[in-house]
Amino acid sequence: MPAVDPGPKGISAHVDTFTRDNLPPLEQWPEMNWGLDMLAYPSQLNCSVELLVKAVDRGWGNRPCTMSAEGAVAYTYIELNEVSNQIANVLVDDLGLVPGNRVLLHCFNNPYAVAIWFAIVKAGGVVVATMPLLRSGELKTILDKARVGLAIADARLIETVEDVASEGGSVPVPYDGNGDRDLLTLAASKSTEFQPVDTAADDVVLLAFTSGTTGVPKCTMHFHRDVLATADTFQPVLQATGEDVFCGSPPLAFTFGLGGLVVFPMRVGASTVLTERPGPPLLQAIQDHSVTICFTAPTAYRAMADQVDEYDLSSLSKGVSAGETLPEPTFHAFRQATGVSLIDGLGSTEMLHIFISASGDEIRPGSTGKPLPGVEARVVGEDLEELPPGEVGRLAVRGPTGCRYLNDRRQSEYVQDGWNLTGDSYIVDEDGYFWFQARADDMIISSGYNIAGPEVEASLLKHQAVVECGVVGVPDDTRGQVVKAFVVLREGRQPSEELAAQLKEFVKDDIAAYKYPRQIEFIAALPKTETGKIQRYKLRERAPG
Length: 545
What we know:
The structure is a single chain. Strand 23 (466-476) and strand 24 (480-489) form a beta hairpin. The protein has a domain at 447-542: 2-Layer Sandwich (GMP Synthetase, Chain A, domain 3). Helices cover 30% and strands 23% of the residues. The termini are far apart. The chain contains 16 helices and 25 strands. By secondary structure, it is an alpha/beta fold. A 9-stranded mixed β-sheet has the order 2-1-10-9-11-12-13-14-15, with helices on both faces. Strands 16, 17, 18, 19 and 20 form a 5-stranded antiparallel β-sheet that branches. It is globular and about 70 Å long.
């Protein structure tokens, strides 16, 4: 039976007990490892105090903390602390927030969003951050499931929120606009002092909805202590310092973005540059702000490698890749273009952030790496028996964080016998390195052969004509399934039957012939989530036609 969670237990500050009431039964939780000294947090803990208030106490107050890439808004640590205090006063005094209330934060990546995030946390609220591209129907699902009371949105996004907020009893609150009810306008007249709520280490601080590669989002629940644990366990890999400048493209609503662009830099007193849109603005930000550490998805690094001659990226010393597996050709292309060896990382919304990775001399191109401190991982069969090195199986993980779905029957699918089953197929080698094979539902079985789609994708990416691709299995009367590749070509290359034939032969020459894509469809762009993950289920939906 799974052990009772041994993490620090405190006295809950939540007057509104909705999140605690909707945690899974304790017997359905994964086993948690809190035995490391670095994870010895007190039982009463508010992560906003650890990340921001104590940063000022440590003498970091005048350091740059967060800035917009265009330079329009910038806060030092002490300025961010004071602005978030003003906003917290509005939330409590004017909007009636009580500890435990859920607060939607529908935002772009900018310093205002970070200040509001900290204000909600200081006030004991539970942040429900959402990505700016979500539409009213998607937001309604989130508002209803999380029972959101306040729905705070960037003024450019407020109409989408207003469309659905009133239906569920949520109060829409705009910010960075005009008018008397604008959150920032109200905050400007408030005191810069605020006493953060003394939350328990195991009070829920955020609800994170999965990004929807399967089309059915789930809501994960994470505690104050979990936020700090992600930073403290990844720091031995990242080795960031207060001199670093962070930047990246993942939305703050995506836990990869929250960690990489807010929690990790602030844990060491570094600064972060926020861009509202991915692509060239990210390259420009690296050049303009002498960024040293970048967080983004593999597809972005692939594009950056092709554009490196147009920007000065000489300040960049580290790049962290997550959201999708990092293809080996992308690793080599980026290193050749910049000299930077990308840090691959496997994480999940359920686990909050990265739990397997490697950096520096420990990197083995093509491998995800090894478990972080405090994390145990193994490759298992259908009965959860541990498989020997070199055998493909399901990845099972346990560590200081883990899956707790909000009132969802799928809890017992993700957590089994105390292990988090991530839905990934992996191999572990004799040295303990983990090698991604495919998402469990992306493994292609053709004529009895198991074919990992990402391996075929990595082969295609080596061809000079291919900029992106997605590989899925499609039904076949003879073989059960055959491999089909959706290919995005580089600018100047035109789709043709001849090129399709060349790509098939290219793959045959590169990997085992039975793995080559028997079908190739050229496509203008791959369907992706806002976090950069390829939505292969959409490719499968269109593949038969």
